[in-house]
Amino acid sequence: MHGRLKVRTSAEEAARKKKEQEIKVKTYRAGMGRIFEKRKNGQLDDEMMQITGQILSRNPDVYTLWNIRKECILKMAESLGNEAKQSLYDKDLGFTEQCLMVNPKSYGAWHHRCWILENCPTPDWEREVALCNKYLKLDERNFHCWDYRRFVVKKAKVPAEDELKYCTEKIHKNFSNYSSWHYRSKLLPLLFPHETSPARPISESKLKEELEMVLTAAFTDPNDSSAWFYQRWLLGYSQPALDIAAIRISKNLAIASFSKPIDLRTCEIETNFGFNFNPDRWQPVQKGNKYDVAWIVEDSFELGASDLQQYIFKCRMSDGKDYAINLKKCSDGFYGMKCPKFEYEFGAAVIEELKNQLESCNQLLEYEPDSKWTLLTASLLMRAIDRRGYHTKSLEYLQKLEKIDYLRQGYYADLASKWAIEKVLEEWIEQGDLTVAIDLSNLNLATIFYEQYMSIAKIVILRNNCLSDRTATKFNAFQFCENLDASYNQFSTPGVIPHIPNLKVLSLEGNKFSNNATTRLEDQMKNL
Fold first, then answer.
1. At 198, phi and psi to the nearest 5?
2. Which CATH fold would you assign to the domain 244-327?
3. Taking the domain 417-526, which CATH number applies?
4. Extents of the domains making up the chain
5. What functional role does this protein have (predicted)?
6. What pLDDT digit, counting tens, does each position of 166-215 carry?
């Protein structure tokens, strides 16, 4: 009827959108075709800048076009003086802002802006800091802008104190700000380094303050993960520091294992008992790896009756740092192992704060017993306070998490395996006797951690766990193992256990092998 807006039917609307899309695709293809033709002919001119600008202003995520614009700018800038060159770069800075209005999270636009500022004659870094303030006011969780901010504040020489204050303001405005929490973790070690230990990120007094602050954030919204993640950083759940884990040398085999993967072929090995190790002879236990936690060398070693007070194995890494371990002499050679640090050790004031936080978590669990972040944090707090005393309780929480947060049950199962292995491993290393079995049976293990520390063990018992084929490659580290019991697990592929040179007894009964597979497995065992 007259005066009424006609509403398109769904079919008509779909046809209209399809026609619009076809026009856009046709225009895009024509523009890209023209760009590549001009590039092929070396025509990096104003027309090229115009065409790339037309496409990028609608879709700023086409990396190729940003690179072509760089080529154009460099070509044009060749014959210009500094003033004209600066004008050229400033114009493209303005263009990137137009693109960021279309998509504030465009990787290409932010990266292009970095390139412009690093190449123009007189970059205005203070202006860029103000630009970051503008965009983070619109969206304080724009991690692209946070990344760009770290770049420009370094160039502008903004004091770290000012940046920490800015982070604090953003966190108080919105606790759910992963980027700000992350940035905070980079600033605090610069401003509040630990008094005595370089391995610890921040001082004890500042750590206590941060724990109090993060608890407030976490309990404001227990279902938001950003503050919980930051708390994990405060508690020290990070990669272990590089160090020698274990060494063993026999008449025909030597193994060197480390807390983190390294390329041992780039290192220098030195001992005080006459052994010379050519770095080129070392091979990773996982064949084909460039970096590995365990390395072996097969050779004939003279185990002379030297009578030194101390046997030292020293390794100089590619970074120039020396790492050493004291070895003991045994009937068939030398061996040594270090107990890894599983968590940070905190002072009395911090421990008291951690206990208060654990109590708060337990109170919250009375009202929200299925709060996954509270359960996980409570288990981590127990580990930080007294991992041996709370060992059973922390594993109970992880078992509960496997049921509550079943989509991540593999993560919780792996974490439980890690903690269970840590307890047994620590006790085994404290005994310091290679002839004693490292008994990891009946622990419900889903995988193996710290295999580099077990590389010198004679007997490894993994009976009655949940280990599967994905774990078998870990056994490559067990080069000195003579008796391996992996019975009653979930291995399903015959021959999945790798060759272990010193192995005499291998138990695999109770796994998922078929009858034929069992026969083939028995044949393999006869050849051992």
1. -70, -20
2. Immunoglobulin-like (2.60.40)
3. 3.80.10.10
4. 25-123, 204-240+340-404, 244-327, 417-526
5. Catalyzes the transfer of a geranyl-geranyl moiety from geranyl-geranyl pyrophosphate to cysteines occuring in specific C-terminal amino acid sequences.
6. 999 999 888 888 999 999 999 999 999 887 776 678 888 888 888 888 88
Q: Which of 83, 171, 160 is nearest to 120 (CA)?
A: 83
Tokens of 212: 């109090």
Rounded to whole angstroms, the Cα distance separating 511 from 303 reads 40
| Residue 330, H or E segment | strand 322-330
Rounded to whole angstroms, the Cα distance separating 481 from 347 reads 39
105 phi and psi angles, rounded to 5 deg: -115, 35
128: which residues sit within 8 A by CB, 6+ positions away?
A: 113, 117, 148, 152, 155, 156
Strand partners, 297: 254
| 106 contacts: CB under 8 Å, gap ≥ 6 | 60, 61, 99, 100, 144
Q: Which two tokens stand for residue 227?
A: 């503050």
Q: What is the pLDDT of residue 198?
A: 64
d(CA 283, CA 297): 6
pLDDT at 8: 57
End-to-end CA distance of the chain: 92
Distance CA 422, CA 316 (A): 27
**Cα gap 380→376, rounded to integer Å:** 6
Alpha-carbon distance of 361 to 337, in angstroms, equals: 37
Pick the CATH number of 25-123 from 1.20.5.170, 3.20.20.20, 3.40.50.300, 1.25.40.10: 1.25.40.10
Six token digits for residue 191:
């401003």
Q: What are the structure tokens assigned to 273, written together? A: 């008992």
Angstrom distance (rounded) from CA 48 to CA 350: 61
Task: Determine the Cα–Cα distance for residues 74 and 81; give it in Å rounded to an integer.
Answer: 13
Tokens encoding 59: 């879709």
Q: How much is the pLDDT for 334?
A: 86
Q: What is the pLDDT of residues 38-88, one digit of tens each?
A: 888 888 888 888 888 888 988 898 889 999 999 999 998 888 888 999 999
Angle of helix 107-119 relative to helix 82-102, nearest 10 degrees, comes to 170
Q: Which two tokens stand for residue 507?
A: 């138990």
Q: SS3 of 79, please?
A: coil
Give the residues of the chain that fall short of pLDDT 70. 1-9, 198-199, 237-239, 276, 302-306, 514-528
Alpha-carbon gap, residue 340 to 216, rounded angstroms: 33
Q: State residue 385's pLDDT score.
A: 92
Query: What pLDDT, on the 0 to 100 scale, is given for residue 238?
Result: 56
C-alpha gyration radius of the chain:
31
pLDDT at 37: 85
